[in-house]
């Protein structure tokens, strides 16, 4: 995987430059947004490449273009998510109206880029892109409505919102290689997204700032567990969530309850359940050692 991020970045630059229907201002904004996220790496594109490589006899160089297309879609979703949540300070939050146009352009470019490749099964890949993108949007809608307030509904929501996108990356790589997809890849693909979302939820609660889910009255597994405890801290948090204007959260007591009262341990336990489910499916898929190591890293 050495040099993979560079190849994806190069492919993204080419896609942007060759898109004649985009004006210069849109291209400049798109490139600046891309630079903002480059440091994070292109994990969704990697999932696509690794699964294509695992099931293909050789490497078609267009796979880098497909991986770049997937990253365009992911970045567009990230931008829209941040504009909706209003809890980050990325460059696109500074000009939301203009940024929305860039995100819309990237959605179209993602499908268009795959269609312009030489893969025999590119139509199947586009159908997968559309299917799992729509599922993710449905999950995002549920997240914004903030109505998933128990374990079952919350896990269903993050499966749609996050699991759909990681499954999409895996399955597009598989379908480009052999023209079909398997349940095993779809299942562990979804579980990767669930695990990453739970890890993000836990991380959100470690800093009392603008992205803290509890301060923003958002629901996540640790918070759902905390609210079920029915003690002084959970009652205070429940009052805060119910807009009781006289409730002032005791940050130290709440943080202590999250850390030592079992809420974080509960979320980690749920994460590990999906980790072991994913590993069981992964055992039946013939990935090379590099690909298997990368997936196992995402499952930790």
TrEMBL record:
<dbReference type="InterPro" id="IPR000092">
    <property type="entry name" value="Polyprenyl_synt"/>
</dbReference>
<comment type="similarity">
    <text>Belongs to the FPP/GGPP synthase family.</text>
</comment>
<dbReference type="InterPro" id="IPR033965">
    <property type="entry name" value="ComQ"/>
</dbReference>
<dbReference type="GO" id="GO:0016740">
    <property type="term" value="F:transferase activity"/>
</dbReference>
<keyword id="KW-0808">Transferase</keyword>
<dbReference type="Pfam" id="PF00348">
    <property type="entry name" value="polyprenyl_synt"/>
</dbReference>
<protein>
    <submittedName>
        <fullName>Polyprenyl synthetase family protein</fullName>
        <ecNumber>2.5.1.-</ecNumber>
    </submittedName>
</protein>
<keyword id="KW-0460">Magnesium</keyword>
<dbReference type="InterPro" id="IPR008949">
    <property type="entry name" value="Isoprenoid_synthase_dom_sf"/>
</dbReference>
<keyword id="KW-0479">Metal-binding</keyword>
């Amino acid at each position: 995987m050495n040099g993979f991020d560079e190849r994806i970045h190069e492919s993204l630059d080419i896609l942007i430059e060759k898109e004649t229907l985009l004006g210069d201002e849109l291209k400049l904004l798109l490139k600046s947004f891309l630079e903002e996220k480059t440091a994070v790496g292109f994990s969704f594109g990697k999932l696509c490449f690794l699964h294509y490589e695992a099931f293909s006899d050789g490497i078609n160089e267009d796979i880098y273009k497909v991986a770049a297309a997937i990253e365009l879609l992911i970045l567009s979703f990230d931008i829209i998510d941040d504009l909706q949540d209003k809890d980050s300070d990325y460059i696109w939050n500074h000009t939301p109206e203009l940024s929305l146009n860039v995100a819309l352009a990237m959605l179209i470019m993602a499908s268009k880029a795959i269609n312009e490749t030489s893969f025999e099964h590119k139509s199947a890949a586009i159908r997968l892109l559309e299917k799992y993108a729509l599922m993710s949007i449905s999950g995002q809608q549920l997240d914004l409505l903030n109505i998933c307030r128990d374990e079952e509904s919350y896990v269903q929501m993050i499966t749609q919102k996050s699991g759909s996108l990681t499954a999409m990356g895996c399955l597009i790589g598989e379908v480009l290689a052999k023209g079909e997809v398997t349940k095993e890849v779809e299942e562990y693909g979804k579980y990767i997204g669930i695990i990453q979302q739970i890890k993000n939820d836990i991380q959100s609660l470690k800093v009392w700032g603008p992205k803290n889910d509890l301060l923003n009255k958002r629901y996540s597994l640790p918070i759902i567990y905390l609210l079920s405890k029915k003690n002084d801290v959970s009652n205070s948090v429940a009052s805060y969530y119910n807009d009781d204007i006289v409730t002032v959260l005791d940050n130290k007591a709440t943080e202590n309850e999250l850390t030592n009262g079992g809420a974080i341990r509960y979320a980690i336990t749920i994460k590990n359940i999906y980790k072991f489910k994913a590993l069981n499916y992964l055992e039946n898929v013939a990935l090379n050692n590099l690909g298997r190591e990368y997936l196992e890293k995402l499952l930790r």
